[in-house]
Every structure is written in structure tokens, then in C-alpha cells.
Write a structure and sequence with these properties.
ADF-H domain-containing protein; six-stranded mixed β-sheet; ADF/Cofilin; 171 residues; Severin
């Protein structure tokens, strides 16, 4: 005789959540070089930006390092160097001026942001691997002000990014 096992819905929900998590994590590791370069950008201000890629499908590694005098346009160019079907991660030390209400002087602000670049033309498999590995990179790079996901140059534009970063500034 066949007996059906009835479990509380909370147990079933936890089970399915754990199964889903196993499928969502890619198993891609973050190379130590990423953490070292991140500290050089964040604390030492040695570089303006870093572009990361998934190397051999196993590890997030440094692909391009932009020096301090390189522009945001250089960053966007380097993000796309892999081609139209390639995803990348980008870390940028963004500088802008901010004017608080009631003050006559503008102050200079700097914010680090981490971008997931997955162009519309990338394959579904590549997008899934990069998206599911993004969390591992975020956890490895402590202190990033904002994360941004972009699928085209409009979403990755300097104006769009600056608007996103300014949203948390006080008036």
C-alpha cells in the first residue's frame, strides 16, 4: 500500500529554496588578485577602475586595470573589449561634485560602484553564469557603495550612473 507523507508547507518551502539556491550558485570562485586590486582602488587610490571576467568558467579574475587619469568612456570601452556577446564586471571609483541646499560651495564626492555588464546580445548561458556569480564578487569586495546592472550603453552611461549614485545624497 502506498502512503503519502504530508509535510508542513514551511518545510517544503525551505526544501525548494535550498534546491533553487544550489542551481543559482555557479560555483565560480573569486581570485585573490581581485581582492588585492580592489584594495588598491578603494584605499590607495592607485587605479580608477577594474574590469573583471570569468576565466575558464571557474574563476573571476582581473582583466583590465585603468589608471587614475583614465575616463569613464575608457571604462565603458574596456567593458566591451570582449565583444558584443561577452559579459563583464566593472568596478569604478566615480567622482562628482555635489551641492547641498543652503550652501554656496559644492563638495567633491567619490563613490565606488560595481557593475554587472550583460549586453542583450550575450548568450543566455553566459548571462546566467555572470548573474549567478555576481553575489560572490559583491561579498568579496566589501565597501562598494552601489551595484548596478546594465544591459546596454544607455543603462551604463555616465549620466545614468551619476543619477543612481546621487539618489542617496542629502539635498
Amino acid at each position: 500500500m502506498y502512503h503519502r507523507l504530508w509535510l508542513p508547507s514551511a518545510v517544503v518551502d525551505r526544501f525548494y529554496a535550498s534546491v533553487a539556491l544550489r542551481f543559482l550558485t555557479s560555483g565560480v570562485k573569486v581570485a585573490d588578485a581581485c581582492k588585492i586590486i580592489y584594495e588598491e582602488v578603494k584605499k590607495d587610490k592607485k587605479h580608477r577602475y577594474v574590469v573583471f571576467h570569468i576565466k575558464d568558467g571557474k574563476e573571476i579574475d582581473v582583466e583590465v586595470i585603468g589608471n587614475r587619469n583614465q575616463s569613464y568612456d575608457d571604462f565603458l570601452e574596456d567593458l566591451q573589449k570582449g565583444g558584443q556577446e561577452e559579459c563583464r564586471y566593472g568596478l569604478f571609483d566615480f567622482e562628482y561634485t555635489h551641492q547641498c541646499q543652503g550652501t554656496s560651495e559644492a563638495s567633491k564626492k567619490q563613490k565606488l560602484f560595481l557593475m554587472l555588464w550583460c549586453p542583450d546580445t550575450a548568450t543566455v548561458k553566459r548571462k546566467m553564469v555572470y548573474s549567478s556569480s555576481f553575489d560572490a564578487l559583491k561579498k568579496a569586495l566589501h565597501g562598494v557603495s552601489k551595484t548596478i546592472q546594465a544591459t546596454d550603453l544607455n543603462e551604463a552611461s555616465q549620466e545614468t550612473v551619476e543619477d543612481i549614485l546621487r539618489r542617496n545624497d542629502r539635498e
